[in-house]
Each structure stands twice: as C-alpha cells, then as structure tokens.
Task: structure prediction
Amino acid sequence: MAELQSSRLPELPEAAYYISNFITAEQEALILEEVSKLPGGRWKVLTHRRLLSLPSQLTGTARDTLIDAALPRFLAKPILDQLKELEVFKDSPHSAPNHCLVNEYQPGQGIMPHEDGPAYHPITATVSLGSHTVLDIYRKNEEGEREVTPSWRILQEPRSLLITTGRMYGDTLHGIAEAQVDENLGPETIVNWNLLTDKDAFESGTAKRETRVSLTYRDVLKVAKVGNAMKFMNKKW
Ligand SMILES: O=C(O)CCC(=O)C(=O)O
Ligand SMILES: [Fe+2]
Result:
C-alpha cells in the first residue's frame, strides 16, 4: 500500500489509513439511492442499527463461508476499482473484497466495541456515506480484555475511506457510541484531525450526527462455489 503512506495514522498501531473524499458527492448520492431501494425485508433490524450483508450472509456452522457471487454493481463501481488502484487488497487471497456489510445508523445509534474476527483476511475498508461519525478504538489489556475507555478516536467524514489492517485489525477493538452529537472534537482528541477535508465543520468541537450508512468491504477467506454447495446439500439428503 505504498501510495497510502501519506494517509497513515501514525499514532495508531500498524496500521490504519484515512482518506477523505474517497468518493464524490455525486457517487455518494447514487449509492445512497441504491441502498434506499434495497428491499426492506433483506435488512436485519437491530435496536442499535440495521444491516445488510451482500452478496449474502456468511454461512456454514462457523458462519465463516461465503457462497460465491458478485457484489451488486452499485457496490462494485466505482469503489472496487478505486480500492484496486490503491492496491488495498493486493496481497489478500482473492486480491479484492468479496463481501460488503451495509450498516445504517440513525443519530443516537452505534455499534458495540468488537473485533472483525478471523473469517476475513485482516483488512477492512470502510466507506462512510451521509454523515460523519466517530469510531472509538480500544486497546486490549494483558488478559486480552478490552480496556474500558477508548485510547483513540477517528473522525470519519462522509465520503471518506478508512482502512484498518495488521495489528490495528488484530490487537484492537472498535465501536461507535450511541450519541446524537459528537463532542470534544479537536486536534488533541481526534487522531486523523490533520487529514480531515472539512475541519470547519468540526472546529466548534461538536457535530450533530445525521443518518449514516457505512459500507464495510472485506475479503472472506472461505468461498464455496454454488456448484459445490449444491453437491454438499445433495449428499446430505
Ligand atoms: O459503521 C462502521 O463504520 C463500523 C462497522 C463495523 O465495525 C463492522 O461492520 O464491523
Ligand atoms: Fe467492525
């Protein structure tokens, strides 16, 4: 990821990269329109957000297997091409993401601190749409438990790309607080402050959240071809 060096967040464990305006406002609007057209029944609705797994949910007893299928076009173009240009997934097993989780958060909603886990090659690429948010990053203590307070905060602007990999992927947890308004924003508290495009929007130190849709692109390690999955099913019967 040589081209990404200037986007690296050096305060964080190796490595996280932040790129503002990764997509244009037009591209953002088109993707949000396509997301809004997805059938309501396909979303999994949780109290704290709703989410959709594309091209499908992971399957198998360990819920770690993807049935081989292409990502919908609106998730592939232009984002996959741009990720390829940046060589983000160059060394991952399928050389590209094969899965995208679409999360939608209303103001006040968030996601509990978690790790992205072993089903994926350890690279996550997240595109934010519609609103900023603040991602809290937690260290683990010596017992491997999550520390209570986050050690770092990343401000994700709409249209930005955040990449996490390596020790950042494996040794930390991340979550989004259930806040209507993000507070305490500034160069001392936000690790990517210098890489923001629109610092003016956050200079007051507080920012009200709007509806945010995030696209989390990953490479699922285990992929089953549909033909093989059918064979497997036939054997069972
Ligand atoms: O919405 C986000 O940016 C975070 C989503 C996330 O952590 C995940 O999908 O694993
Ligand atoms: Fe995550």
Observations:
- Residues 39 and 233 are 28 Å apart (CA to CA).
- The chain has one domain: 2-236.
- The chain has a mean pLDDT of 94.
- Residues 114, 116, 174 surround fe (ii) ion (ligand 2) (CB under 6 Å).
